[in-house]
Amino acid sequence: MTRILKQFTTGNWTPELVRCFHGYGRQTFSSDVAAGVTVGLVALPLAMAFGIASGVNPQAGIYTAIIGGFLVSALGGTRLQIAGPTGAFVVIVAGIIARHGLSGLLMVTMMAGAVLVFLGVTGLGNAVRFIPRPIVIGFTNGIALLIASTQIRDFLGLRMKENPSEFFQRVIGIWRHLPSFNPLALAVGAGSLALILLVPRVTPRLPGSIAALVAGTALAAVFHLPLETIGSKFGGIPQGLPALSIPEFRPDLILPLLPSALTVAILAAVESLLSAVVADSMTGERHNSNVELIAQGIANLAAPTVGGIPVTGAIARTATNIRSGGRTPVSGIVHAITLLAIVLIAAPLARFIPLATLAAVLFVVAYNMGEWREIGGIVRLDLADISVWLITFVLTVIADLTLAVEIGMGLAALLYIHRISNTTTVTTVTPEYIARGRVHSLQDKHVPEYVDILRIHGPFLFGTTSQLAAETADLDRYAPIVILRLRNMTAIDATGLHALEVLSDRLKKSGRTLLLCGARRQPARFLEQAEFIRHIGAENILPHVSAALERAREVFEDRSGVGRVASLAG
C-alpha cells in the first residue's frame, strides 16, 4: 500500500491527456481534430458490425465505442490509443449472452472492469506478458476463423432463422441452407468487399470500409433493394443520447461468471497493451501500462450503463489515428464525439445499411487480426510449441475461449518447467574447456566505438522478453553495429524468438546492423529450426564474440550493411 501511495504522489498515475497539454497549440489541435474525425468514421461500421456479431444490437457497439473511446483517451496512459469494441470479444460475448443473457454480459463486463482497475493499481498488469506467443497466436487464429464463419449467413443472405453459436453446428447449418442464398445480397457483399480492399490503393486517405458503407447504404436506400438491413432486423438505431441505467448486480452469479470475467479482463489487458506497444513503435513514445489498464477498467465499468459491451484498445483504429496525424489523446476524444454526433444527427440513415456490407467489413477484420502469416513461423518451431498453438487454436474454435486459454496456459507452464530443467549442466573444467572459453571472453577484446554489445543472461522465455524491449527502447543511444551476446542465454522459446525478430527489424529500420554471437546448443538449434537465420542473415550469426567483432569491422568498413547511421559515425 505504501508503494502504491508513493506512486500516486510522485505523479506516476497522471493520464497522458494532462501531460500533453504542455505546449499544446492550434496546429496540434487541428491535427487532432482531423485524425479524430477520420478514426470516428472508420470506427462506425466496425462498432456496428462488432455489436451485431456479438449478439447484441448495433447501437450497443456504437455506444461502447463512444464511452470507451472517450474515457480511455481522457484517462489512459497512452498518447494515441483508440479504444472500443474489438473482434477479440465477439466470440466470448456471444457465448456469455447465450448462457446468461444480456444481463449476465453486463455483469461480466463490469466485473472485468474491476479486475482491470485492480491490475493497474497493483501493477499486476505486467503479468500479461507471461502469456506465451503460441497461445496468443492460437486464440487469435481461432477467433478470426469464428468471426468469419458467423458472417457467412449475412454475406450470402441465407434464410437461416438462427446462427448457431457452436462452430460445427453453424457450418452444418450454412451448408444445409446454401440453396437459399440471395444473389443480390452476395453481389452487394462482394462489391463491398472489393471496395474495402481496392479503395485504399486508389485513394489512401479514404478508408475502404467507409466507401463500402456509403455505397451499400445508398444502393439499398435509393433502389429499395430486397436485402436484410439494420432496419429490417433491428429496427434501426435510436436517434439521441443513450439511456443511462445501472445493470442489476446479482451476487449469486459472481462465481459462475468469474471465469468469463477473468477471460474478458485478460483479453482486454493483452489487446490494449499490445495496441499501446504498436503505438509506441510508430511514434517513439512510451506508454504507462498501469494507467492504461486503470482507464480500460473504468471504461468497462461505465460501458454497461449504456448497454455496451467490453472495451479494449483497438490496434487498427490506433494505427489509423497515428497515420491520420493524431498527436495527443484529444484525437481519441474527437473520435468519440464524432460517433456521438453521427448518432444524434444521422441515426435514421443507419436503417438502410445492408448486413451483407457489414459482413464484408468483418471478413476483412477477421483476416487482418488472424495473424495468419505467423503460422508459418510457429510450425517451424519444436513440437512442444506447435502443440501449445494447435491445442489453443482447436479449443478456441470447437470449445470455449476460456477453456482454450486455461489449458494453453497450463501446457505453457509445463513447457516452461521442461525448458528450465534443461538449462542445468554439470561439466568438468579442463584445459580444453578453458581454451574454448577464451574466444567468448570480453576481458582481452577491444570494442571499437562503432560497436555496442548487449548480452542476455539466463533463459529468454515468455515473461522475460520485456527486459530486452526496455533496454533497447531508445535506439538513438546505440552505435551503428549492435552485437547481441548469447553466450549466457540458456534457453529460448517462440516469444523470445519474436522479441529478437522485433529488435532486428527496429535496428534495421534505424539504419543499424544486428549481430548475434555465442548461442548455446538449445538456442542455436531453435534459431535454425525457426529459420531465424534467413531473417537476420547467416553471415550475421557468429560462433563467438571474437568472430562478431571481426564481422563488425567488415560491415563498418563496407558501410553497405549499416547505411546512413554508419556514414554519420564515420
Q: Name the helicity range.
A: 55-70%
Q: Low-confidence parts lasting 5 or more residues at pLDDT below 50?
A: 7-11, 561-570
The radius of gyration over CA amounts to 26 Å
Question: Could you give the distance between the termini?
Answer: 52 Å
Average pLDDT figure: 84
**General form:** globular
Main sheet: strands, sense, barrel: 4 strands, parallel
Query: Which range does the strand content fall in?
Result: under 5%
Query: What number of domains?
Result: 2
- Please provide the count of β strands: 6
Count, helices: 26
Supply the helix-strand structural class. mainly alpha
Which strands sit side by side, in order, in the main sheet?
Answer: 3-4-5-6
Q: Which structural traits does this protein have?
A:
two-stranded antiparallel sheet; Transcription Regulator spoIIAA; mainly alpha; 570 residues; four-stranded parallel beta sheet; 63% helix; globular
Description:
The longest helix is centred in the first third of the chain and has 33 residues. The chain has a four-stranded parallel beta sheet with strand order 3-4-5-6. Helix 21 links the parallel strand 3 and strand 4. Helix 6 packs antiparallel against helix 16. It contains 26 helices and six strands. The C terminus is likely disordered. The protein is globular and about 85 Å long. The chain has two domains: 360 residues, no CATH class; 139 residues, STAS domain (Transcription Regulator spoIIAA), CATH 3.30.750. 50% of the residues are buried. It is mainly α and 570 residues long.
